[in-house]
C-alpha cells in the first residue's frame, strides 16, 4: 500500500482476488476452497490462483491452513481494513460523478401533491424553503438513474410526515425528500437549492424524477424540454 492509504498498482490483482474471495465467503468466518475452485472464481489457471492466495497470505490479508489440497481461509483484520479502504474510495468516486437529467413536460401529478395543505405546510419547515406549487420533471438515462439510486442509499431523507384529511377521511402517506442543488449543464455556476420529491404513488416512468424548488425552475433557468440539468446531492446530512 502507498503512504496515502491507497493500494499500490502492483497489488491491484491481489485486491481483486481478495474482493472475489470476500464475495464468496459472504457471512462465514472461514471458507474451504481449493486453488482450482479459486481459479474458477477469478477466471485464472490453478497455478495463478495458487500464487494469488500465497500473495494474499504474504500481504497479511488472509490466513490459511492447508490440509492436503484443500485450504481453509480466513480474512484477517488487515484484509478487512483493505476492503473498507476500497469501499470508502469507491464511495467517494461515486459521489463525485455528475448526474444529468433531461427536462420533460409532466402530468401535473407533483403539483397536486405539493399543493396539498398537509404536505405544503411542512416543506418550508423541513426543507428550508417554501416551494413553488409544482415540480420539474427530469428524465434520467439508465446509467444515471442507477447511479442516483445508489447515491440515495447513503443520504438521510427529509421526511414529510403523513396525515389524514379530516374532511375527506383520505389518508396520505409520508413523503421522502432528498436535498440537492440544481444547475444547467451549460451554466453550472448558477445553482439553486432544491429537493428530489420521492412520491411512492407515482405514475411516472421509472427513469423520471420530480424536483421541488422555489422559484419556478422553468422560468429561473429559462428551460425548455430537452435541456440538461446537473443534480448534485447533499451528503452533509
What are the SSEs and their pairings?
Elements lengths: L11 H14 L5 E3 L1 H8 L3 H14 L2 E6 L2 E6 L1 H20 L2 E6 L4 H7 L1 H11 L8 E4 L2 H11 L5 E3 L2 E2 L6 E2 L2 E10 L2 E12 L9 E6 L3 H4 L7 E6 L4
Helix pairs in contact: 1-3, 2-3
How is this structure best described in words?
With 237 residues, the protein is α+β, with helices and mostly antiparallel strands. It folds into two domains: 9-92, Winged helix-like DNA-binding domain superfamily/Winged helix DNA-binding domain (Arc Repressor Mutant, subunit A, Orthogonal Bundle); 99-233, Riboflavin kinase-like (Elongation Factor Tu (Ef-tu), domain 3, Beta Barrel), CATH 2.40.30.30. 38% of the residues lie in helices and 28% in strands. The protein contains eight helices and twelve strands. It has helices spanning 12-25, 35-42, 46-59, 77-96, 109-115, 117-127, 142-152, 217-220, and strands at 31-33, 62-67, 70-75, 99-104, 136-139, 158-160, 163-164, 171-172, 175-184, 187-198, 208-213, 228-233. It has a six-stranded antiparallel barrel with strand order 4-5-11-10-9-12. The chain has a three-stranded antiparallel beta sheet with strand order 1-3-2. Strands 7-8 form a two-stranded antiparallel sheet. A hairpin with a 2-residue loop joins strand 9 and strand 10. The chain is elongated, with a radius of gyration of 25 Å.
Q: Helix amount, in percent?
A: 25-40%
For the biggest β-sheet, the strand order reads 4-5-11-10-9-12
CATH class of the largest domain: Mainly Beta
Number of strands: 12
Largest sheet: 6 strands, antiparallel, barrel
Give the overall form. Answer: elongated
Number of domains: 2
Portion of residues in beta strands equals 25-35%
Tell me the CATH architecture of the largest domain.
Beta Barrel
Number of helices: 8
Overall pLDDT: 85
Secondary-structure element sequence?
HEHHEEHEHHEHEEEEEEHE
Radius of gyration: 25 Å
Unreliable runs: none
Give the CATH superfamily of the largest domain.
Riboflavin kinase-like
The termini sit apart by 32 Å
Q: Which class of secondary structure composition applies to the elements? A: alpha+beta
CATH topology of the largest domain: Elongation Factor Tu (Ef-tu), domain 3
